[in-house]
Design brief:
With 66 residues, this protein is α+β, with helices and mostly antiparallel strands. Helix content is 27%, strand content 24%. It has two helices and three strands. A three-stranded antiparallel β-sheet has the order 2-1-3, with no helix packed on it.
């Protein structure tokens, strides 16, 4: 993944609940955001695609504007 530029808006995403037992699509969204285990944090670029993944699995995530 390319490093975000200084002008690119980023979002910090933390996995707060387990993906075990969740829909496969929600598991794929969490994995696509770069999260593997509980309390794992990733800084992702604020794009419509990433926002969609965050919205799909919002019950598993904590999202902070970075």
């Amino acid at each position: 993944m390319p490093k975000p530029e200084a002008t690119t808006k980023t979002v910090k995403v933390t996995l707060i609940k387990s993906v075990s037992g969740q829909l496969k699509s929600h598991q794929a969204c969490v994995r696509g955001l770069g999260l593997r285990r509980i309390r794992d944090t990733a800084v992702v670029i604020d794009t419509p695609e990433n926002r969609g993944m965050m919205r799909a699995a919002n019950h598993l995530l904590k999202v902070d504007e970075a």
